[in-house]
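Title: Request for sanity check on Coenzyme F420 biosynthesis associated uncharacterized protein prediction

Description:
We are preparing a figure and want to confirm that the structure record we downloaded matches what your pipeline produces today. Could someone re-run it with the sequence below and paste the raw structure tokens into this thread? We only need the token string, no images.
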Amino acid sequence: MQVIDWDLAVSTGVRLVRPGPQVSREEARHAVAELRRLSREAEGHVQEFARIDGAAEPEAATIVDRPGWIRANVDGFRVVLEPLTERMNARRSQIPAIVGAVGSRVTGVEVGAVLAFLATRVLGQYELFLPPDPSGRAPTGRLTLVAPNIVNTERELGVNPRDFRLWVCLHEETHRVQFTGVSWLREYVRSQMTEFLLASDLDLGTLLDRMRAASDAVADAIKGGEGNLIDAIQTPEQKEILDRLTAVMTLVEGHGDYVMDAVGPAVVPSVAEIRSRFQHRREGGSRFDKTLRRLLGIDLKMKQYAEGAAFVRKVVAEAGIDGFNRVWGSPATLPTHAEIREPERWISRVLHAPELPTSNGHL
């Protein structure tokens, strides 16, 4: 039994996604070649500044269009949701076949529609969870850049294309260094995601309650409230797990934002202008766009960038880069939500306390 009809999700997303900006064949070739080159250039800048040694031999970024991003993310979702799929298959008899079949198709359409919206916004990402290669080996990750969105954004902002492209690469390369240079981090995120999924209540009555809560969240968001689907469909146990997940993702996103700006002045001459215009764009948009962002939790992600970057700046100002890098020692040295908002609490607990145990890593 499929939780989601993945083929339908892909076809729906590809059908609904808006086309990218108009570019000539030569402009497209140049953008792809430059993004590949700048992704390799960014690697050296990030490693030198962040002082984290990426364990894996880096590869040039994978450059995709909007449909390609949708297909790649569906592949990633299938990997992430595999534990939940296995569990639901084990409980197949508890859910009527017609409910399962219709539910997977409805969910497939919904996932496809969400991906079509996101596929016009995402500039790049470091994909943590990939399907096994033909030999059965699970890749460690992949740095992906969405060329049409990068070109579209640099045009909208009216900034230097080369500078903007390198600036984006610096952020995404920071994530590659984080997840390859800190040996336990990828598995920690995976285990938290698996725990979150398996904390779901799967009986039919509970699923219907979750659907009603999701409908209420949609209505609240449309009226300008703070409702979002993530909060609506969680169990109490999942909220606790999500707090841990959100804390670590706030850290890695904030660290990425900090590094891209801190490295920027040396290699991206117009970084101050880019950051100012990009931040203004993040906060703008139509009422419909803002409603969708709030509903899908995208506004929460924007808040993560700001809170995480503020945490990193405070700790680096107090203890330097090497002091900040104590954060990567083990799960025990990760900041909590409260510590991200009040960095002095993390500094007191980790930097001014007896040495905490560390996991084997590359730092």
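Thanks, this matches our download. The CA atoms of residues 350 and 356 lie 7 Å apart.
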